[in-house]
Amino acid sequence: MAQVRRLEPASASRGDGTVHGAWEQFVRGEDNIRGVRPEIAISWQRCRDQYRVDPYLTEAPVAVAEVDHALEHDVVIAELGFRAASLAHEISNLGGIVTITDAGGRVLAHWGDQATRTVATEANMAPWFCWSEGATGTNGMGTALMSYTPVLIRGAEHWCQAFHEWSCAGVAVRDVVTRKPVAVLNISCWRGELPSAVGSWLGNAATMTQRILRRRAQDDGAELMAAFNHARPRSSAPLAAVDSAGRVVLADDTAGVLLGIPGSTPAPDPAVRWKPELPEFIRAARYAAKQATRNPDWVGSTQIFTRLANESTAISFRPVFLSGHLVGNLVSFGVDEGDPLPTTGPRTGGEAPPRAQPQRVVATRDNRMVLLQLPEVSFAQSDGNDVWLSTDDGRLRSALPGLDKLETELNDSGFLRVHRQYVVNLSRVREVERRCKGELFLVMDDPEKTMVPVSRRNTPLVRRALEI
């Protein structure tokens, strides 16, 4: 379950000239934005450089017509709507409004003070309009979709100047398996301050709603285990049951060795499922889940390098459903059947079409956002929830939360996960040291000649990548 961070109450910074001055400079193309919180600076960077949102936009655009979410998420959205409605009276008395959106930032419903709703409607903060960052810039709903914790957006922190008189706080409810957002609960005030209890309100609502997803995920894990136990006596191939995010619920002993995880050890709870340190396998599993969601009869296969093998191994995916809802796939090793999965470059099992390669990495230092070219980054190291980058400009904090997300972003750009705590730029490896028990250490080309450990399960992958 996602941890909920306490939000500070909104303050007079809504009219803070420092933030507004920084906004004016950033809109003009400058990157030195003193006095702006790092999470806001990062959002601004996405809005300006990635999404190219017009900072002088005055209203949100109409949302796309398609509904692209799983049917079981309707129950979650309904529950979140119930909790939003229960807050409406108290928020209305404070002159605020409550909104919920789906995972695309489309407003589904709003409640609260009628006068504030009228002002909000003029900016299209109303059902069927889109408030994702890509559509409407930095705002409580869209920025919450990009964050794993509650967000607070005050005054000039909004990307669009027309919304600088608003204060908003939002939190996303995320799928406990895929970690993708399902919906957002948001509280907004116009020309007023958010209540000090806003963080508690949002956190409690998100936590209670998320329990539905956790219970469903546990049921899904039990169904995957049942499918595994049913198929195991009928198959001579190594077998694993994986969820839609590529995490393993149960694997036999042989499959466990190939994946580098404990064999015959059930993990139905999504909080403790096994994550193979094999990016190819995880990408293939996620692609297979997408295909099976679209076509329940789909079966596919690909080739990957497993933990101990020097040659690629065939794996096939067969979907498992519960009440018409995909819960994951059974994966057979050494079996080649069904549709071939697409490839990305020299590896197999990637999603199609290949995503655009990142041109730079965003980091933060004090109140500045630092835009790094990929060759400037030597390696990344996780420290709890933080990720630190070793760069030509010193040690900087990554703007992306979590090493898994950074790995996904950089995996096809010459970076490789070599340890649960490290992702390295392969072009910055200067030496490889082998210890007496076969452990590998990568000596990086930074001035300190930092030695990065390689986990045993990743050693074959690192050897292949470095051709040693």
Automatic annotation (TrEMBL):
Residues 361-468 form the HTH LytTR-type domain. Keywords: DNA-binding. The keyword Endoplasmic reticulum does not apply. It comes from the Bacteria. One of its GO terms (molecular function) is DNA binding. Pfam families: LytTR. Residues 337-358 are annotated as: Disordered. PANTHER family: STAGE 0 SPORULATION PROTEIN A HOMOLOG, TRANSCRIPTIONAL REGULATOR-RELATED. This is DNA-binding protein. It comes from Amycolatopsis ultiminotia. The lineage of its organism: Bacteria, Bacillati, Actinomycetota, Actinomycetes, Pseudonocardiales.
